[in-house]
Amino acid sequence: MIKRLIPLMVCLLLGGVAFAQGGVEFRDLTFDEALVKAKAEKKLVFVDCYTAWCAPCKAMAKDVFPQKAAGDFFNPRFVCVKFDVQKGEGVEVGKKLGTRAYPSFFIIRPDGKVQHAIVGGCELDVLIKRVERGLNEKTSLLYLDTRYQQGKLNKKQLLDYKMALKEADNQAKVNEIQKELADILTEKDKVKAYFWPFFAEAQVGSAEMDFVLAHLPELEKNVGKEKLDQYLDEAYSNVLNSSVKAFHAPVNGGGEKPDLNKLKEQVSNLKIARQPLLMMKYNMLEAATVGDAKKLMEVLDAGVEQLDDIWLASITLQKVSGKATKEELSHMAALGEKISAQQADDYTKKYFAMLADNYRRRAHTGIYFDELSFEEALEKAKKSNKLLFVDCYTSWCGPCKILARDVFTDSEVGDYFNEHFISLKVDCEKGEGPRLRERFGVAGFPTLLFLNGEGEVVSKMVGASKQPVFLQKVKEGLDPNTSVYGKEKQYKAGKRDRAFVLDLITSYRNQREYKKSREVSLELLATLSEKELLTEEMWEVVQDYFVSGYGSEWWNFILKHSDEYAKLVGKEAVANKIGSTMHPYLFGFACGNDKSENRPDFVTCKKLVDRYQPAQKEILYAFIELGKSACSNNFNGYFQTVLKVVPKLDISEHYRFFANALGHLVKNANAKQKQQLLTLLKESQKRQSDYFKPLYQEFLDQVGKF
Questions:
Q1: d(CA 10, CA 5)
Q2: Is Signal among the key words of this record (predicted)?
Q3: Is the dihedral of CA 451, 452, 453, 454 positive or negative?
Q4: Alpha-carbon dihedral sign for residues 141, 143, 146, 152
Q5: N or C: which end of the chain has fewer CB within 10 A?
């Protein structure tokens, strides 16, 4: 059994060695152990300094070092080790070697001296060339640095030194050597192929780039047209791309801003394959710099498909959009849709679709209302980092129509809303309207809601206003210091000073948040003494219908102290309170809709009207008479009272009475009574305004069906 296991073990070990030899064999050694091992094997040490989060480090470990060609090159020459510079011994190794960026590779002699350094990931063939320069003593960083300190480098060696420093990511020293080279290289030197790397860092607009442009024929002959064209393409692409992205900012992190006139001339004169694309980018840059939306549209229309970086289109469009006319914004929206349709990846496609949507709404005169469901609109607002504006209306609401016709079409209103909101219209009697009406407690029309991305109300307006008052109210409603929801947060946090609470109550009433105003009012009143209640200030709280409805605790308080309140606010104010509270209470009975067992004490009601003589006393007397008749369970008697009393009612009461009482009347009337009812309706219709006359036809049709 043992004899069988031995061959198997040997195979496994040999297999492990073969696997390691497939790529670079990184050994599990300490730094000092690697130096000892290198000395014993007469090799150098190759150190890979990396971090766990470094993407280029991962790419090298996954795609470069496992290659057989990598193993064939590194394993015979080096003892290879790698250290995570943020863990264990790697922390000290990183400090010792002076790592500043990752990955960093070092060629180290067995005595511990760094012979060469390379910073950054790259393809295997590039890495091998860089390592070969480090293996060559006369092109290694250690040799060149030593000779430089001794002042013994010639022109070619000085250029080699610059290249070694660049590969080691020592940019400060690179800049220093570049200046020295500029001083000692002659014009003949500069056009030679060997000194071509002198121009590697040359920026457009620099003396070095100007030299290249002035000596294109010689350089093309010595360096090669393909190499030279690629160099020019990259240089001008970099300056144009970075200038577009930074809107004419310094190039490459610190150069001078490009001279547009000089840049235009240079790009125009380039004789390279991608010159038309470079010229297009220049024209985009120029248009964006001066904010010329029309010119930018012309440039992009002519060749947006040619762009190798579509985000340049996005950036320049946004740059000019601030000064664009509505016609230009409409053009930009169409272009955004075109670009979106051309994109393959989902993110870019959605981004340009969103950009197009933004320009489309800004191009619109007046408020741009999206045709979406509520949830879709809410999601869109959330993604756009905007509030959702919801216009809650009905088809019969007069003020709603005024808003839609005169305010929502106003250009100033539209520009503000289209920039800050996603807007939606909801008919509260159709589709999802009734559900949303209930969800947000819409009690009247129009109600204008402003919601955050979570569907929470941050502002609410009820009723219509003309411009410029409308926009002012919208802005005040969204101001945390003046909005009702800002005050509500302070109230919930415990703020209870009298002036603040009274202001909150008023704000709730203005927004028809009657339930909330009642809750705050009742909480306030419960804390006050009778003396504090009997003040003009508190009258405004007590007299509110939702606080002191008919028969409530505070209704009885007002009746008990009506004389004291009359001295404070006047008899007329008290009488109006009595009348306005009794009116809706008695109206329901007058329409025959409340059951007889719920009948009020009509005698007491009449006494209250007799005593306080409110302005609507005749209407109240009529309601009492109608109510008494309706509650007597004698429909014929009630019907005769309707024929007698309704014609005497103020014409403003007719429509509401028929809207509420007609169903009861039609259901119980005989044929003769229905004819009498038709006559009554027609007489009432004649006295109505043009707005209500057409609505009476529905009443007439309702009676005529039976």
A1: 9
A2: yes
A3: negative
A4: negative
A5: N
Sheet containing 78-84, strands listed edge to edge, beginning at the edge strand earlier in sequence: 78-84, 44-50, 104-108, 114-119
**How far is the C-alpha of 385 from the C-alpha of 350, rounded, in Å?**
15
Q: Which residues pair with 114 in a beta bridge?
A: 108
Whether 219 is covered by a domain: the verdict is: no
Q: Are residues 171 and 232 in the same domain?
A: no
d(CA 385, CA 403): 26
CB-CB contact of 83 with 90 (8 Å): yes
Q: Residue 550 CB: number of other CB atoms within 10 A?
A: 16
Please report the pLDDT score of residue 513 as a whole number: 85
C-alpha neighbours within 13 Å on the C-beta side of residue 66: 7
319 lies in some domain = yes
* The Cα angle at residue 656 between residues 691 and 667, in degrees rounded to 5: 115
Compute the distance between CA of residue 187 and CA of residue 536 in angstroms, rounded to an integer. 97
Whether 351 is in a domain gets the answer no
195 shares a domain with 55:
yes
Torsion of CA 145, 106, 34, 54, to 10 degrees: 150
Give the model confidence (pLDDT) of 485-532 as tens digits. 889 889 999 999 999 999 999 988 988 888 999 999 999 999 999 999
**614 sits in which H/E element:** none
Question: Which run of H or of E encompasses 438?
Answer: helix 433-439
**Residues annotated as part of the active site:** 397, 400
Separation between Cα atoms, residue 4 and residue 268, nearest integer Å? 79
* Helix, strand, coil percentages, rounded to 5, for the chain: 65, 5, 25
Q: Is the peptide bond before 103 cis (omega within 30 degrees of 0)?
A: yes
Q: How many CB atoms lie within 10 A of CB 231?
A: 19
Instruction: Quote the domain boundaries for residue 578.
Output: 570-705
Same domain, 242 and 297: yes
Summarised one tens digit per residue, pLDDT across range 239-259 is 999 888 876 444 444 445 678
191-238: pLDDT as tens digits: 999 999 999 888 898 999 999 999 999 999 999 999 999 999 999 999
Domain count, the chain: 3
428 contact partners, CB below 8 Å, separation of at least 6: 392, 393, 394, 434, 436, 437, 442, 445
For strand 387-393 and strand 447-451, is the pairing parallel, antiparallel, or unpaired? antiparallel
Q: What's the pLDDT tens digit per position in 121-173?
A: 999 999 999 999 999 989 999 999 999 999 999 999 999 999 999 999 999 99
